[in-house]
Amino acid sequence: MVSQLADIYSKMDNDMFRILRAIESLLPKYEYPPLDIVERRARLPPGRFKRALEKLVEMKLLRKSKHQLMGYTLTFQALDLLALRTLVARGTISEIGGKIGVGKESEVYKALSPTGMKLIVKFHREGTRSFKSLRKTRLYMADSTRKHWLIKAKLIGEREYKALDTLYNLGALVPKPIDWNRHAVVQEYIEGIELYIIPDNGLPNPSDVLDKIIATIEIAYKKAGIVHGDLSEYNILVSTSGDPYIIDWPQYVYRDDPIAEDLLERDVYYIIRFFNKKFRLGLDPRSILERVKGSGDGG
To answer: What are φ and ψ of residue 47, in 5° steps?
Structure first.
């Protein structure tokens, strides 16, 4: 079954992509780039420009300014298509499948590489929330308060890809990052289920799973110098082989951040509380936190 995103992608032509790229290139300067400037930037004959623009509006890939000055900006789906076109051109992916995850801050699709490798593509959606709310809960965006919301999403995509790349190469249990473009992060697909779904008797050895989670927290803190900052049973994926992979890293903070210690304590306490309650381990989170913060290089 063809996904909605794949179906829309198949209906795009070069003229439509040229208009999307023209608008995207103007976003650092305009929230809604003026139509006359977009037309000059797209460098299309008037007739072709008009037809392509009408198609984009009809497909709801553009959002029109409510002000008197005629202008358009991209929707997130338009940005998805631009990222997808680049990833296809690079040979990173050859097929985009159905949506497998939707949250407040991302949409996740299955995909395939040209060699048949199973992948996921995570399209960040953080910019859909209000700027004020985003800055309160995502301190890493505090220095970009004037940036367009689509630009913010692109920065977050880059941020998560780089975090995954660092952690994966340090031996942490995180999804293998494959590529990144704009707000889209491509990762190797992991067969498994989220930790919170697993029944009480669903882990043969919950202590071993917890040890691996703590080891990844420790690698992140001691070797990569970062703290996840939002860890819970909802962003840990347990593979069919029993390995726990920590996902969703864009909100990490650096170890020297003033709030890093509090977030590290929060991450450790949350995950220990979950394992103690669900699997009756009876562990002291303070001793685990001391292990994570202890001297040495970790891992």
So the answer is: -65, -45
CA dist 253 and 9 (Å) reads 35
121 close to 130: Cβ distance less than 8 angstroms: no
Helix (H) or strand (E) holding 111: strand 106-112
| The CATH homologous superfamily of the domain defined by 192-293 | Transferase(Phosphotransferase) domain 1 (1.10.510.10)
Query: What is the pLDDT, as a whole number, of residue 249?
Result: 96
Distance CA 108, CA 48 (A): 33
Q: Which of 11, 179, 187 is nearest to 86 (CA)?
A: 179
How would you class 254 by CB atoms within 10 Å of its CB: exposed for 0-12, middle for 13-18, buried for 19 or more? exposed
- pLDDT tens-digit profile of 57-73? 999 999 999 876 789 99
Q: What is the pLDDT of residues 9-40, one digit of tens each?
A: 999 999 999 999 999 999 999 999 999 999 99
CATH number of 77-188: 3.30.200.20
Residues 6 or more apart whose Cβ sits within 8 Å of residue 275: 206, 210, 281, 283
Our answer to whether residue 230 is catalytic in this structure is yes
30 SS3 class: coil
Is the pLDDT score of 145 beyond 60?
no
Catalytic residue (choose from 15, 179, 230, 248): 230
Tokens 């338009």 locate to 78
Enter the pTM of the model. 0.90
Rounded CA gap, 44 and 39, in Å?
7
Helix residue spans in 35-75 (DSSP H): 35-42, 46-58
pLDDT for the residue numbered 67? 76
Tell me the CATH number for domain 4-74.
1.10.10.10
